[in-house]
Amino acid sequence: MRVYDGELLSVTSVVSLRDPFDSRSFEFWCAKEGYDPELVLDTSKILGTKVSDLIEAKTKGLEALLEPPFDKVEKALYTAVSSFTDDWKVVDCEKVVKNEKLHYAGRFDGIIERNGERFLADWKTWGASRDKPYKRDSKKIKHVRWQLNLYAEAMGWKDGLCVVVFKSDGTWEREVVKRDKDMVKWVEDNQELILKTIEDEKHKESDKKD
Questions:
Q1: What are the strands, taking DSSP E only, across 88-189?
Q2: Which of 4, 140, 180, 208 could lock onto 8 through a cystine, CB 3.0 to 4.6 A?
C-alpha cells in the first residue's frame, strides 16, 4: 500500500483494497508454466517503467538521453512506442492528481489526442515480460478502468478513457474503456476502510523509523 503526503491512499492501493491481488493463484500459474513469480513481477515493473520513461522523454524532447534498448523485447517495445507516438500526440504525462475529499491520489500515465479526440490513457506491457503474445484479460482491463475513472474524478476529466498495450511483437493496441460511476461510489462508501488503511501504513512507517 502506498500513501501520498501521509494522508492520501494511492489509486492502485484503492483498487487493491476492492479486489486484492490473488498471489496464491498467480504463484500456482507460474509453477504450472515454469516461471519464477518474482522474476515475472520484477521484469514486468522494469519494462513498464522503461516504456513510461521513453514516452515521457519523447514528449519532452529528451529521447537522446535514454540508454539504448537492452534486448529484443525492449527493442520491440521501443518500436511499438515509436509507432504509437507517430499516430497519437502525447500532450501530457506522468502527473500526480489528488482527490482530497475522497482521500486518494495517483499518477496518470498520459493524455493523448488525435483529430480532435482526447483520451486519458494508461500504458501497459502485458505479456511482454515473458515475450508472449498479448491476450486480453478482462480482469486486468477492469482494474485499469477503475484506475482511470478515479483519475478522471480527481481531475474533472470529461473526455475519453483508454488503455494502450505495447506488445512484444513491436505493435500496440488501444482499447477505450467506459466510465464507471460504481468505482467512485465504492470509494465514497468505503472511506472508513481507506482512512484506516492510511493510518495503518503511517504506523508501519513510524515503526520502521523507531
A1: 89-99, 104-114, 117-124, 160-166, 172-177
A2: 4
